[in-house]
Amino acid sequence: xxxxxxxxxxxxxxxxxxxxxxxxxxxxxxxxxxxxxxxxxxxxxxxxxxxxxxxxxxxxxxxxxxxxxxxxxxxxxxxxxxxxxxxxxxxxxxxxxxxxxxxxxxxxxxxxxxxxxxxxxxxxxxxxxxxxxxxxxxxxxxxxxxxxxxxxxxxxxxxxxxxxxxxxxxxxxxxxxxxxxxxxxxxxxxxxxxxxxxxxxxxxxxxxxxxxxxxxxxxxxxxxxxxxxxxxxxxxxxxxxxxxxxxxxxxxxxxxxxxxxxxxxxxxxxxxxxxxxxxxxxxxxxxxxxxxxxxxxxxxxxxxxxxxxxxxxxxxxxxxxxxxxxxxxxxxxxxxxxxxxxxxxxxxxxxxxxxxxxxxxxxxxxxxxxxxxxxxxxx
Length: 379
Prior knowledge:
Layout: E1 5-9, H1 23-37, E2 41-48, E3 52-55, E4 61-66, H2 78-83, E5 91-95, H3 100-112, E6 116-119, H4 133-149, E7 153-156, H5 162-167, E8 174-176, E9 200-205, H6 210-213, H7 215-223, E10 231-236, H8 243-252, E11 259-262, H9 270-274, E12 279-282, H10 291-298, E13 302-306, H11 312-318, E14 321-324, H12 328-340, H13 345-359, H14 362-378
Parallel strand pairs: 1-2, 1-5, 2-4, 5-6, 6-7, 7-8, 9-10, 9-12, 10-11, 12-13, 13-14
Antiparallel strand pairs: 3-4
Helix pairs in contact: 1-14, 7-12
């Protein structure tokens, strides 16, 4: 029996397969490792400032192709273009949403007769078109939708996200696979502690992207809580994005020392950082899965997530948080419901953690996806 060859393309993946800072990096690395553990021959393709190849200790290979960073993003590295014919007989998974390089690779694969799967990592929820619609809608009709229609499959993080594709007249076969966790970053059970008195500590961890993450909703909802309720909110992430605007919003609402903005800390795992808080809040307008929410659950923390997020069915099933719609009223009510259950947070957190450790292992997720990949290779 031949070994299935799987290629994963993500333009900005770290060429040495280290320092995974973003959720995309972590998810792609996790799937690649899980597929390798299940016997697949896995090569990760990326473009960076130098050519190179790395056999990682995780069982997969990274092939990096020099991209000078000049010209349109749809311009591919000459080395990558030359390499793509070698993917014949395998399957290529293209990672990213609304990214010109993904469309460019898909077009070349189509010409070569190589099957590809598009893994956007975000759902094509109506809210994704709300920001810069004059750019996104033309791009959707001219490039994104044709690419999806010619794909062998579209990989989503939650079965419900397949409906958004149907609503946009994309009837391509849908594969479903949630995100998983990095076993090296799971906090040891012995290190877990719980804040059972004093102000409740709410937190957000990630990019300051208001349109995506619903951070304006979060701040407005928090401002609507009774000022006598002992609770604080910390937002932590890289500078830039909408951070300055959000700080001004919090100041205008008179939140003062109840809301704090902190820079990122890349010296510690996300689960370790989140263990300092009690509740992770992520009221996203659109969200593929949410690695941050999963990392909070692994730290035995309760979470508040929007219903569109791929992790929300697990949160409901495991009763480890509150699922809300991305509106100020529902986010505020969700906060209040969680605060009312504070005495149960320890039990809720441990329940979510133990369930996630079993269900969301990368090797299990990859084992479920691999047979589907093999069928697409044989078609």
